[in-house]
Design a protein that fits this description.
It contains 7 helices and 13 strands. It is α/β, with parallel strands linked by helices. The strands form 2 sheets. Strands 4-3-2-1-11-12-13 form a 7-stranded mixed sheet, with helices on one face. A 6-stranded mixed sheet has the order 5-6-7-8-10-9. Helix 2 packs parallel to helix 3. The protein starts with a strand and ends with a strand. The model has no long low-confidence stretch (mean pLDDT 92). The protein binds fe (ii) ion. Fe (ii) ion binds at residues 38-39, 73-75, 162, 199.
Length: 265
């Protein structure tokens, strides 16, 4: 039975110790795919030991996995150009998702945009000259049906969105980390099996809840806290066939809490 393991992490903010812990987690869990769900960069130097933007690209390009996938957070702004240029020099394929689907074996994952901050650099670096390409779509959700349609039900497996869906215990209402209400609409419409977010570093720690169910969808906030211990998820998906499809079974291991959640869709 084909099995795909994905390690997701968010909000590294160029902090050296978190990047180093990520490398340790990848060595330990040996995922096929690592996904950075936004805010792996930032514009400020508010931590005493941060990588430069170029060092982030060089470090991540050396992760020993088959694919490294990026989804934009609000802290990927103009700094993306330097990251992009450095990554291109590494010759590793750049898998940056913007309103787009990425397929790895039987696993189909959907990369949402982040509608906060300045997405110009990220979008322009990936732009397809076709004016109908989804990144040119200013309607936050009009692009989604177009992106999902070619993949059928398999596109409901794993959604990656830096901002959490709004109105859950995973983010703080009425704040800049309140989450995105349009993602709630999308989840209610399509019932994806699993969504992974970050962005709000504090609320899950305060509530003690790192996951929440919206209908049948398991939503996870895997954002960092100020403890210095890396938060990340290891998703294991088992499939009946090697072609893109919904999994037969999926689990999410959340670290460092060690909690495992079954995802059944
Ligand atoms: Fe963020």
């Amino acid at each position: 039975m084909p099995t795909i393991k994905v390690l997701t992490v968010t909000d590294l903010h160029r902090v050296r110790v978190l990047y180093e812990q990520l490398a340790g987690a990848v060595a330990s869990h040996r995922p096929e795919v690592v996904v950075l769900v936004g805010d792996f960069l930032d514009a400020g130097g508010d931590h005493p030991d941060q990588f430069t933007t170029a060092e982030c690209a060089e470090f991540l390009s050396k992760l020993p996995c088959e694919e490294v996938v990026f989804v934009r957070g609000n802290h990927e702004g103009d700094n993306w150009w330097e990251f992009y240029a450095t990554w291109k020099q590494t010759r590793r394929p750049l898998r940056a998702l913007d309103r787009a689907v990425f397929v790895h074996g039987p696993l189909v994952m959907v990369g949402f945009p982040c509608l906060m901050g300045d997405e110009t650099a990220f979008v322009e670096s990936l732009s397809d000259p076709d004016p109908n390409a989804p990144h040119h779509d200013v309607d936050a959700l009009r692009w989604l049906p177009k992106a999902l349609a070619p993949h059928g039900a398999a596109a409901r497996t794993l959604w990656l969105m830096h901002e959490p869906p709004a109105g859950t215990p995973l983010s703080r209402a009425g704040s800049v980390v309140a989450g995105n209400p349009e993602w709630v609409s999308a989840i209610e419409r399509y019932s994806p099996w699993l969504t992974i977010s970050g962005h709000d570093h504090g609320t899950p720690r305060r509530t003690g809840r790192w996951h929440h169910k919206l209908g049948r969808t398991v939503c996870v906030n895997a954002g960092q806290t100020d403890t210095g211990r890396l938060h990340y998820c290891v998703i294991q998906a088992e499939f009946a066939t090697a072609t893109p499809s919904l999994p037969q079974r999926m689990t999410v291991l959340m670290q460092p809490t060690g909690e495992t959640v079954g995802v059944t869709g």
